[in-house]
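User: Sequence recovery, please. Input:
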């Protein structure tokens, strides 16, 4: 170990702080990687030594595992390797879970063969993580150093409760993060400071270690039920992931399976066919792998392959591209790790060098030729074809070519309204979609786009100031864009022709996500436009949201979607007080959202660029030759628009039952079990000169349940009233004119508002309110490729449940691709 490079472990020893024989027994190649957190001695009454695994998912060349084994052997305690997926990570999705669970299968096999107890926890029914309980009974705890959110916060919270020795180990870097005492600022300085350390360690490789626990391995199994990950099939993973409260709109990457086996297979192919020309071809994103880049970053991110092994084999190969590949693997990758390890907050602009912060601040108000909300960016809906293709590579395939990612990131810096919004978009898009996202290397590259590890470039440019510019158009001239377009246009698994019946929130949510994953989607809607119960009726110069008036968001996934819609100006907060007319009290101040320009703006936004067949009522479906045939009421559909391999129905439950009664009895029975309350809605115009202070009011229910007022013109306002379920049922078959008169009388009586009777109309919502929603969010039959979704599924029968149901069904369809492939 270099004399000038001190770590916490050696500092503790020099200060004669008793870290006991436990840490003193470590060989130097492990000791230099250890950060001893606190000075608590081991717990002699502990049941086990615990190694919390998360980003070193391998049973070989794993310093954290070897430290844990050494501790277990020294203490004569059993070793438990714990891994879990219950931390509610901000970017949890089907994509990340699928990759991790596949990788865990390899870890389980490898550790089981070595006689090491490995346990995996996946939460069920919102159960809390057992890790705190496990740690409370630990003789010692070993953690991995992962210097980006949320792991430092999670670890700090866990350590604050620990009453035993806790050691954090760097299992990610060849030159460990413990060896530098400050954040490096430039690559050349970092290279100069560490070149001897790399030369020494790469040449030596990782010492071969027998992973044998010499203690009694009889385990205590009363803490939690471990997932039998080693025996689970892809079908099992499909079912397990469906039960998790994660983002189901981001599908698995089928051609990048998780695990050490797949990782080393990819490495060997690149070593044999791509490494020799890496130095010449690495910057061309249009090349087909294994030419160009290695595509190892997801496996390095989760530690499924050993960087020590990759570096040693690269040097030993001594091919034309070996030197450049080693520089990327060591200097650039580990530069970012060391930086994040010493940076208080890599998620903020404060992580940038002072000159970059200053120039971005000075140019924050500069005119931007293009600005885009996050929804447009994540769909790849900008003016730049190459940028859109790069984003679709992330969205569909979970990866983005390293060199093109720099251009992609620079553009976001120019297309957002402020530097802070640019950084937020960079982090969200990369971490959410990329399999290698939320990695220290990601932060290094994304922050580089805003000046990190760089110098000022004169003269200053608009928006970026003296931050280095990088043109998307110039990049496009350097590569074969048509070839790249063809490559990015592929799907993960078989490209499906998918019919979605219903253009409400559920139908458009699932259609939107499947379309964005490169599937061929057609939506069939019986009305004149999308919207369902979020429809807006227009009668010049007035418009009426005669169905849903507002919505709320409680589930974190829908809360995020709500924020995206708000940023894109699709929705806005409900303006005006909401009261109860019975006692004139204000109703709770929970956030309520309303469509900007009408509630149907939400569905219009979701429907952008989708193929929607309007005023097309589907009356019959049938199964023929493993395909679905649909028939419309007036027989207007050409043959191509009638044949699909996947069918999704998002109609109300009674209509779903009618369509499925002969082709899928199980789903039809589920739909038949759902009961609805009807609702008569009245729309009218009132004099705006003397409106009450409120804009929404809950009525007496006899017969009015709800009244809303919206300013419409200088001297008038629109009024929408909803009748109670009981009254609506009683008058279900009454004519609309008489219902309008009765409700107008009731509203005038309760509010005193003068109503323009000539402008008053009524609309009947036969299936307005779900009385007993099913508890599952969606259902999908992978054998027939039939799915159902809607607000009658999911348990709360709201716009939120409709969106979550559509998202859940999307997950079913995309995961089924992984199984069939």
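Assistant: Recovered sequence (821 residues):
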């Amino acid at each position: 170990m270099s004399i000038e490079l001190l770590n916490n472990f050696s500092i503790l020893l020099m200060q004669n702080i008793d870290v006991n024989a436990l840490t003193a027994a470590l060989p130097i190649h492990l000791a230099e990687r250890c950060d001893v957190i606190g000075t608590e001695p081991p717990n002699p009454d502990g049941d086990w030594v615990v190694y919390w695994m998360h980003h070193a998912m391998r049973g070989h060349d794993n310093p954290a595992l070897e430290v844990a084994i050494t501790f277990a052997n020294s203490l004569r305690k059993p070793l438990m390797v714990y891994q879990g997926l219950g931390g509610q990570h901000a970017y949890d999705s089907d994509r990340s879970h699928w990759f991790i669970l596949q990788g865990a299968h390899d870890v389980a096999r490898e550790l089981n063969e070595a006689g090491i107890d490995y346990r995996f926890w996946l939460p069920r029914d919102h159960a809390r993580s057992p890790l705190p309980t496990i740690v409370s009974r630990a003789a010692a705890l070993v953690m991995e150093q992962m210097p980006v959110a949320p792991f430092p916060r999670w670890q700090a919270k866990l350590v604050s409760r620990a009453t035993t020795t806790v050691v954090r180990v760097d299992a990610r870097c060849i030159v460990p993060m413990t060896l530098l005492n400050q954040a490096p600022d430039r690559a050349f300085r970092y290279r100069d400071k560490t070149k001897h350390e790399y030369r020494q360690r790469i040449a030596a490789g990782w010492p071969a270690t027998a992973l044998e626990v010499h203690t009694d391995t009889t385990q205590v199994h009363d803490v939690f039920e471990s997932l039998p990950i080693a025996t689970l099939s892809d079908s099992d993973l499909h079912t397990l992931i469906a039960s998790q409260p994660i983002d189901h709109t981001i599908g698995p990457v089928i051609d990048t399976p998780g695990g050490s086996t797949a990782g080393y297979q990819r490495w060997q192919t690149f070593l044999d066919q791509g490494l020799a020309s890496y130095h010449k071809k690495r910057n061309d994103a249009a090349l087909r792998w294994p030419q160009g880049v290695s595509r190892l970053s997801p496996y390095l991110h989760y530690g499924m392959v050993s960087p020590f092994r990759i570096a040693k084999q690269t040097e030993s190969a001594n091919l034309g591209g070996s030197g450049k590949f080693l520089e990327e693997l060591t200097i650039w990758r580990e530069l970012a790790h060391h930086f994040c390890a010493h940076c208080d907050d890599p998620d903020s602009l404060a992580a940038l060098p002072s000159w970059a912060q200053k120039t971005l601040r000075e140019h924050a108000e500069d005119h931007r030729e293009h600005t885009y909300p996050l929804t447009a960016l994540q769909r790849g809906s900008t003016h730049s074809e190459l940028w859109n293709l790069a984003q679709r590579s992330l969205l569909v395939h979970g990866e983005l070519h390293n060199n093109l990612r720099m251009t992609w990131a620079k553009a976001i810096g120019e297309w957002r309204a402020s530097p802070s919004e640019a950084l937020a978009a960079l982090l969200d898009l990369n971490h959410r979609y990329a399999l290698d996202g939320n990695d220290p290397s990601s932060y290094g590259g994304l922050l580089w786009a805003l000046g990190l590890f760089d110098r000022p470039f004169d003269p200053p440019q608009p928006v970026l100031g003296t931050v280095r510019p990088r043109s998307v158009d110039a990049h496009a001239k350097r590569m074969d864009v048509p070839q790249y377009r063809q490559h990015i246009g592929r799907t993960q698994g078989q490209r499906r022709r998918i019919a979605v019946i219903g253009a409400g929130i559920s139908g458009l949510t699932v259609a939107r996500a499947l379309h964005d994953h490169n599937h061929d989607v057609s939506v069939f809607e019986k009305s004149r436009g999308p919207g369902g119960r979020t429809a807006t009726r227009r009668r010049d110069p007035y418009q009426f949201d005669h169905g849903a008036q507002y919505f709320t968001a409680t589930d974190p996934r829908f809360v995020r979607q709500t924020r995206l819609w708000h940023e894109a100006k699709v929705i806005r907060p409900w303006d005006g007080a909401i009261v109860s007319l019975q006692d004139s009290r204000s109703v709770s101040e929970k956030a309520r959202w309303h469509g900007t320009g009408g509630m149907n703006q939400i569905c219009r936004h979701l429907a952008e660029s989708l193929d929607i067949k309007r005023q097309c009522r589907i009356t019959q479906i049938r199964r023929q030759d493993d395909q679905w045939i649909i028939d419309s009421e007036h027989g207007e559909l050409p043959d191509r628009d009638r044949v699909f391999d996947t069918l999704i129905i998002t109609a109300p439950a009674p209509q779903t039952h009618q369509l499925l009664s002969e082709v899928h009895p199980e789903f039809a029975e589920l739909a038949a079990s759902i009961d609805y309350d009807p609702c008569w809605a009245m729309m009218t115009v009132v004099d705006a000169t003397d409106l009450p202070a409120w804009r929404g009011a809950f009525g007496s229910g006899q017969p009015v349940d709800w009244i809303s007022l919206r300013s419409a013109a200088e001297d008038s306002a629109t009024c929408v009233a909803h009748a109670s379920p009981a009254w609506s049922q009683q008058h279900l078959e009454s004519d609309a004119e008489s219902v309008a008169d009765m409700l107008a009388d009731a509203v005038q009586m309760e509010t005193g508002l003068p109503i323009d009777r000539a402008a008053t109309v009524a609309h009947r919502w036969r299936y307005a309110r779900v009385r007993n929603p099913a508890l599952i969010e969606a259902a999908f039959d992978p054998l027939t490729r039939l799915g159902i979704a809607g607000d009658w599924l999911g348990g709360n029968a709201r716009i939120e449940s409709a969106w979550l149901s559509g998202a859940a069904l999307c997950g079913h369809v995309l995961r089924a691709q992984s199984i069939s492939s």
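Residues 689 and 715 are 6 Å apart (CA to CA).
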